[in-house]
Structure formats: C-alpha cells, structure tokens
C-alpha cells in the first residue's frame, strides 16, 4: 500500500487528471463548451428576432411609431395599455405625454426595465416610465440564470466520467490492482479531487474566453454585470461538484458493467437536472428562490442568482455555503462507506444495504 492516505490520494488524483487530459472526449467536450459560449454571445447580434410588440394610445403615438420595425397594437386608453404591459403581452406602450417634458409628445411605459430595443426604433428617445422598476434588469437576470444553470448542468453531468471510469476499472479488474496499492477511501478521495481540479481548470478556461466572446458579440457591458456574481458562483459550483462527484462514484461502484450503469444513475441525474429546471423556471418567484438558495442541491445556482439580483446579503450566502459544505461532508462520509463496500463486488448490481453491511 502507498505510504499514507494523503500520498495515496494525490497519486490517484494525478492518475485521474492525466487519464482525462489524454482523452479526446475531454478536449472535445471543452471545445463544445467554448464554441457554445461564443455562439450564445455572437449569434444574437447577427440574427434578429421577431419585432417587439408595442401598445399605442392615441393618434400621436401611432404617428411616432410609423415606420418603426415594431408590432404595434392600438388600444383605447392608458389603463388598457398598462394592463397589456403588466401582463407582458407587449414589451412597452407608447402613450400621450401630459407633463410637457417630452419633445415628441409621447412617453414610453414599460414594466421593470427600460425597453432599449423599442426606444432605439424611435427617432427621438422619449421619457420612459417603469411600472415596477427592478434593481437589476430582468433580461440580464435571465441571462445570468441561464449561464449559471447551464454551467452547473454541464459540469454536473460531467461527473458521469467518474462513474464510467469506476465501472471500467471494475469491469477490467484493474480495481483489484488499485485496491492492493492504495486504500479504497483514498481511491474515492483521489477521484473526487482529481475531477474537481479538472472542473476548476475548465472554469478558468471559460473565464478567460468569456471576455473575448462578449467583445466579439459587442456585449462587453454584460461582463461587468456578471463578474460580481461569479465571485459567489465559482465556490458554490466547486463545492456542489464535490457533492455530486461522491454520488457519481457510488453509482459507478454499484455495478460491474457499463450497460448496467443506467440503473444506478437515475437519482444522481435527477439531482443534477432538478436544480437546473427549478431555478430556470422559478427564478422570478422570490419566495421560492429564497427557499431554493438554502437547499444544498439547488443553492449552488439559486444563491449566486439572489446575490446578483441584490435579494440576499453576504451573511446569507455564507450560511448557504456552510450548509452546502456540511452536506458535502456528510454525503462524502456516507459515500466512502458505500464505495468501499461495493467496489470489489462483481456479478451484478449491488444493493445499497449490502454495500453498507459489508464494511466492517
């Protein structure tokens, strides 16, 4: 056996990193991530979408909107226009100006954010009134949610490599040689640390490529908006990955063939996909998002989003990160026992109860 637990763990971690750095699949996956990021920032500026829907009140508003690339809907009065804006049936409403402040004789009414695309279509920018002004633009918040959720999903699913490598080692009987060399728990720790470092390395590469992609897409301003949130997202992502990595390792240790891996991956897959969909669809529901920001499996996305929107204080993020770290410790301890009890068992799927009971 290797001299100490620390040196054995380092040996396994180095082996995992070197193995995956030599793998074409790893570089192809990273290349797809970078290409996807460039596409997401550049393509929207190349291909335009459908014209924005705008409500118009009165002949002066219709006159101002004439010739603009907008889907104009005439309504009877200001109340009807505001109702359409509140229900988000239209992006904004152009209404008569009764204050005398507008040189065009109209004002723009929007819900939470200044409708820059609508204002840009007008020859002269009129004053803008917001019915429910937000601290952070909803479009920007939606972008942050999309980026964070997608990164968590991709890196979480990337943990399947741990399960697959564990099954491969069992199937080829290499695991018997490894266990004779290093302690089983050092094998688990090395796998988790090795893949966590690989994940962190990919985050660094994406962080370097992001400013270039945003500059090419003429969206440099977004970087200054997203950067503060990244300061919270990166530690949450890394700690959350360790949580999922331990579970992926157990999923791989319970079976002896790649064909059987699907039978043990369901729960872990749910814990990866669940946070992605939960935060993506409920990010604008503040009470629900607040709850999700303290649940260990969803806090890695929800809390950084709340910090970005200004809906949470630093102490809340620290409490959430502490809960996540405590959950990681508990799950890793449980996973190490299950991993040790099932790693050398072959012949079919190992029940969790048998894996737990087989450890002295």
3D architecture notes:
By secondary structure, this protein is α/β, with parallel strands linked by helices. The protein folds into 2 domains: 53-130; 137-357, no CATH class. It contains 15 helices and 5 strands. β4, α5 (116-120) and β5 form a beta-alpha-beta unit. α13 (296-309) packs antiparallel against α14. The two termini are 19 Å apart.
Number-wise, the strands total 5
Give the helix level as a range of percent: 55-70%
- Unreliable runs, pLDDT <50, ≥5 residues? none
Radius of gyration of CA atoms, rounded to a whole number: 26 Å
Q: How many helices?
A: 15
Number of domains: 2
Largest sheet: 5 strands, mixed
Distance between the terminal alpha carbons, to the nearest Å?
19 Å
What is the overall silhouette?
Answer: elongated
| Beta fraction | 5-15%
| Helix-strand string | HHEHEHEEHEHHHHHHHHHH
Spatial sequence of strands, sheet with the most strands = 2-1-3-4-5
What order do the helices and strands come in, and which of them pair?
Layout: H1 5-21, H2 24-46, E1 53-57, H3 58-65, E2 71-75, H4 78-86, E3 92-96, E4 106-110, H5 116-120, E5 128-130, H6 138-158, H7 160-171, H8 174-181, H9 184-216, H10 220-253, H11 262-282, H12 286-292, H13 296-309, H14 314-342, H15 352-357
Parallel strand pairs: 1-2, 1-3, 4-5
Antiparallel strand pairs: 3-4
Explain briefly what this protein structure is:
This protein has 360 residues and is an alpha/beta fold. Helix content is 69%, strand content 6%.
Notable features of this structure?
360 residues, alpha/beta, five-stranded mixed β-sheet, elongated
